[in-house]
Amino acid sequence: MRSRAGEFLDRTFPTWSLAPAAIIFIVLSVYPILNLLHMSVSTFRTVDGVDRATFDPLANLRFFATDPVLKAAIVNTLIFVAVSVAIELLIGLALAIQVARLRRGKGLIRTLMILPILVPPVAIGSMWKLILNYDFGVLNQGLALVGLGPVNWLGDQTLALVSVIIVDVWHWVPFIFLILFAAVEGLPVDVMEAAKIDGATDRQVTWHVMLPLLKPAISVAFIFRAILAFKAFDEVFLLTGGGPGTSSELISLHLYKIFFVQNNVGYGAMLSITMILMVVAFLLVARQATASGAGDRP
Predict the structure, then answer these.
(1) How far apart are CA 36 and CA 60, in angstroms?
(2) Nearest alpha-carbon partner for 190 in 181, 182, 198
(3) Separation between Cα atoms, residue 177 and residue 174, nearest integer Å
(4) Which of the four, 39, 270, 272, 274, has the lowest number of CB atoms within 10 Å?
């Protein structure tokens, strides 16, 4: 006959077995966020070579209210996320559907599409900075052959953010393509063949059969890519540095300057919290829209 202690251990073992993972999660995730919250309501100054924190949330709020770059950074980030992710979804979805219809060469195309993802962002930024160079860039040389240009892609206030979006689209379309291509390959073939037997054209099958079935995969690709776009840093830092002026300044780049150039740790932490809240708000809206589109309750 088993003792009560043994029965208790057996009953609670699944819970206790999660303890090591829970402790690691708290140490690596929860504690840094709590520390960030503490930093966001503090100001820091160095006394005798040691950084000392003082509780003063109003000081960071004053920085937040009077920051001349913040509004431009928020607007640019929202434009960057909306435009780049929308273009990437459209191109990635069109490529996935067209490649899935090929009889041969799918493996080769899939392999080639992975290459831009494998290239480090630093190399991508350097490569595109040369391509978009005003004096000797390949793009301007191509425009010169047809009697156009040159165009100041990175130095013009109206084109700097557009250029960053172009590079981001080149970099991340393969990511969307791979997600949606796997989803298209997994669609039930018999359903689409039945639609064609009933007289539907390829366009009608795509619009009325494939796209509704692909909604979950499109939603996942959209949410993942949008979260990454909110945090975009490397390419804009290397291409424009946020300029000219604040025309291509993103929140992530502004955060870097606040933390590491201005050394304003408390205000930088407050901006980080603001960015986290923006992403969380986006996720809630996206989840609500996805649930509504699927006809499910959130």
Answers:
(1) 13
(2) 198
(3) 5
(4) 274
Question: What is the chain's mean pLDDT, rounded?
Answer: 87
Alpha-carbon torsion (183, 185, 188, 193), positive or negative:
positive
Amino acid at 4: R
| Residue 227 three-state SS | helix
Please determine, for residue 295, whether its predicted confidence score (pLDDT) is greater than 60.
no
Instruction: Identify the bridge partners of residue 47 per DSSP, sorted by sequence position.
Output: 50
Task: Specify whether the CB–CB gap between 265 and 259 falls below 8 A.
Answer: yes
The model's pTM is: 0.85
Residues with Cβ within 8 Å of residue 292, at least 6 apart in sequence = 298
Return d(Cα 249, Cα 159) in angstroms, integer: 13
Distance CA(51)–CA(167), nearest Å, equals: 40
pLDDT digits (tens, 9 = 90+) for 180-221: 999 999 988 888 888 888 888 888 888 888 899 999 899 999
For 221-257, what is each residue's pLDDT tens digit? Answer: 998 899 999 989 988 999 999 889 999 999 999 999 9
Alpha helices in the chain (DSSP H): 4-17, 19-25, 31-40, 57-66, 70-100, 106-118, 121-131, 138-145, 160-185, 189-197, 202-205, 211-230, 234-239, 251-256, 265-294
What whole-number distance in Å separates Cα of residue 71 and Cα of residue 91?
30
